[in-house]
């Protein structure tokens, strides 16, 4: 490993751990302080934290790789993500911030569901917690594995050593500083990703003689590369269903616990418009930069006569070819930042569910605030250990399962979150049915051999679409057939509506 690269990475790791120590010293030793930052995050931190924890390594590896292979047609996913994120900020973010506080100061998503529907049976909390704990443990394992492979392919280290380094640094600042540390490190990581995704495609364009020369080089090699409606990899025109399927990724935002928990932590809804502007600006520029890296990277490879075995390594390859080791180390740190920001968020959400929704709810109901913080830290370490053990098996089906978790979370929680915030007549029974039906539909759509020649239906239409539709229909139909009789639910919703209206007009 080059000395300059090593220096850049060492500085990055030191900065992340330093932020964790700072957050520990300034944080409240309460469950709300450790698991939600005391609801005092600023708009910039919320915006970049949500963005960084959302995009993970997919932003710097997946998007450039898709553009490298398929050309501009892959932008439909980006269009869908931008639309979904904007609607999430507009519809969910401010309402969830107010409602979670009105609903007995809920600090986790299962906590909110139980309090919103006065579920004394705890069924909602249990079902939601199971979904979160299982899928986020697998999600975390996937991120740690990505870190291990990055260290192996880029730095020549053993894969297992890469796992321990990636997990060790993340666990260190997450365990010490909790939600505040995760959010602050996400902010810094978001800035690093932003700079990297502007820097790499800009230098590529400069190397190729300008934007016009770059686009001309792409068109000359394959006109389909610059077409939104033709997959350059297959040469087949995208159908309407194909475009809708790609854009439907945006539906997933409404049900991602590690993203929407940021909205619960902002200091007030007066900060939400600023967070939306910052978050959407960051997302649009970063996605455009990631797409440009893949597309312009292909033009550079063609122009220089080089071959790339794995399209998803185009960002890594360009950072090693075009920059000196010190800057190259910074760019590789951007990939680590993307991976670590998501791992830390998922670790903390899983820890929150284990602490608040399992331990404090069922094992020790009178558990003190300080003890909940201790349990939270233990849970972070425990989940990390399990995730590392799962990541050791490179050939397991974990990664393929995790690749569909976005659809699972989006369908299971998305309609429930939206309806719970907008429709006062939604019933508790419908809420339970929404989680089960949404998750089940996605699993059947992905894994059942119901397509042609026993293929998955997911090959033709992304599973989140039927999952989201089924979950929404269950909410509407069940709420109509079996309306909620608990008047406390209606009263709570009215309290929320009055509070939201009051705070929105201040």
Radius of gyration: 23 Å
Overall helicity? over 70%
Question: Number of helical segments?
Answer: 19
Shape: globular
Query: In percent terms, what proportion of residues is strand?
Result: under 5%
- Please identify the top-level CATH class of the largest domain: Mainly Alpha
> If you consult CATH, what is the topology of the largest domain?
Sodium/glucose cotransporter
Any low-confidence stretches, pLDDT <50, length ≥5? none
CATH architectural arrangement of the largest domain: Up-down Bundle
- Mean model confidence by pLDDT: 86
Helix and strand string, N-terminal first?
Answer: HHHHHHHHEEHHHHHHHHHHH
Please give the alpha-carbon distance between the first and last residues: 55 Å
Total strands: 2
The fourth-level CATH homologous superfamily of the largest domain is Sodium/glucose cotransporter
Counted up, domains total 2
What is the structural class?
mainly alpha
Main sheet: strand order: 1-2
InterPro entries: Na/Glc_symporter_sf, Na/Pro_symporter, Na/solute_symporter, Na/solute_symporter_CS, Sodium:Solute_Symporter
Keywords: Amino-acid transport, Cell inner membrane, Cell membrane, Ion transport, Membrane, Sodium, Sodium transport, Symport, Transmembrane, Transmembrane helix, Transport
Protein name: Sodium/proline symporter
Catalytic activity: L-proline(in) + Na(+)(in) = L-proline(out) + Na(+)(out)
Give me the secondary-structure topology.
Layout: H1 3-26, H2 31-36, H3 43-70, H4 75-102, H5 109-116, H6 123-155, H7 159-207, H8 211-221, E1 230-231, E2 236-237, H9 240-247, H10 257-265, H11 272-304, H12 314-322, H13 325-363, H14 369-391, H15 398-402, H16 405-422, H17 428-447, H18 464-481, H19 487-504
Antiparallel strand pairs: 1-2
Helix pairs in contact: 1-7, 1-13, 3-7, 3-10, 3-11, 3-13, 4-9, 4-10, 4-11, 4-19, 5-6, 6-7, 6-13, 6-14, 6-17, 7-11, 7-13, 7-14, 8-11, 10-13, 12-13, 13-14, 16-17, 16-18, 17-18
């Amino acid at each position: 490993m080059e000395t300059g690269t090593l220096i850049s990475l060492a500085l990055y790791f030191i900065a992340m751990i330093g932020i964790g120590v700072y957050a520990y010293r300034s944080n409240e030793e309460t469950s709300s302080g450790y698991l939600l930052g005391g609801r005092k995050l600023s708009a910039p931190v919320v915006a970049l934290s949500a963005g960084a924890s959302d995009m993970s390594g997919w932003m710097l590896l997946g998007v450039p790789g898709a553009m490298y292979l398929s050309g501009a047609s892959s932008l439909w996913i980006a269009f869908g993500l931008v639309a979904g994120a904007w609607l999430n900020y507009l519809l969910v973010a401010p309402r969830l911030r107010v409602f979670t506080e009105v609903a007995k100061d809920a600090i986790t998503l299962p906590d909110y569901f139980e309090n919103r529907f006065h579920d004394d049976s705890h069924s909602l909390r249990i079902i939601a917690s199971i979904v979160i704990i299982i899928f986020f443990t697998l999600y975390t394992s996937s991120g740690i594995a990505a870190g291990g492979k990055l260290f192996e392919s880029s730095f020549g280290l053993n894969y297992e050593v890469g796992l321990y380094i990636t997990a060790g640094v993340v666990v260190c600042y997450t365990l010490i500083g909790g939600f505040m540390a995760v959010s602050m490190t996400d902010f810094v990581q978001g800035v690093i990703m932003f700079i990297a995704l502007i820097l790499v495609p800009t230098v590529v364009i400069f190397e190729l003689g300008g934007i016009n020369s770059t686009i001309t080089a792409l068109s000359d090699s394959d006109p389909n590369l610059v077409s939104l409606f033709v997959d350059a990899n297959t040469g087949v025109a995208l159908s309407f269903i194909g475009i809708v399927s790609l854009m439907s990724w945006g539906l997933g935002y409404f049900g991602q616990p590690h993203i929407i928990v940021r909205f619960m932590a902002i200091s007030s809804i007066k900060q939400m418009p600023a967070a939306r502007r910052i978050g959407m600006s960051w997302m649009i520029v970063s996605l455009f930069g990631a797409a440009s890296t893949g597309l312009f990277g292909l033009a550079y490879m063609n122009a220089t006569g080089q071959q790339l075995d794995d399209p998803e390594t185009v960002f890594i390859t360009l950072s090693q070819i075009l920059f000196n080791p010190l800057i190259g180390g910074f760019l590789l740190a951007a990939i680590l930042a993307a991976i670590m920001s998501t791992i830390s968020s998922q670790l903390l959400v899983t820890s929150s569910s284990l602490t608040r929704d399992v331990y404090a709810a069922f094992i020790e109901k009178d558990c003190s605030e300080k003890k909940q913080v201790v349990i939270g830290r233990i849970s972070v370490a425990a989940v990390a250990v399990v995730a590392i053990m799962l990541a050791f098996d490179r050939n397991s089906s974990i990664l393929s399962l995790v690749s569909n978790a976005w659809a699972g979370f989006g369908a299971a929680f998305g309609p429930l979150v939206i309806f719970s915030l907008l429709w006062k007549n939604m019933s508790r029974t419908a809420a339970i049915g929404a989680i089960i039906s949404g998750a089940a539909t996605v699993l059947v759509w992905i894994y059942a051999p119901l397509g042609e020649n026993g293929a998955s239906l997911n090959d033709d239409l992304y599973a989140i679409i039927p999952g989201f539709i089924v979950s929404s229909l269950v909410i509407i139909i069940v709420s109509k057939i079996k309306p909620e009789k608990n008047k406390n639910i209606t009263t709570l919703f009215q309290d929320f509506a009055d509070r939201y209206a009051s705070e929105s007009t201040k």
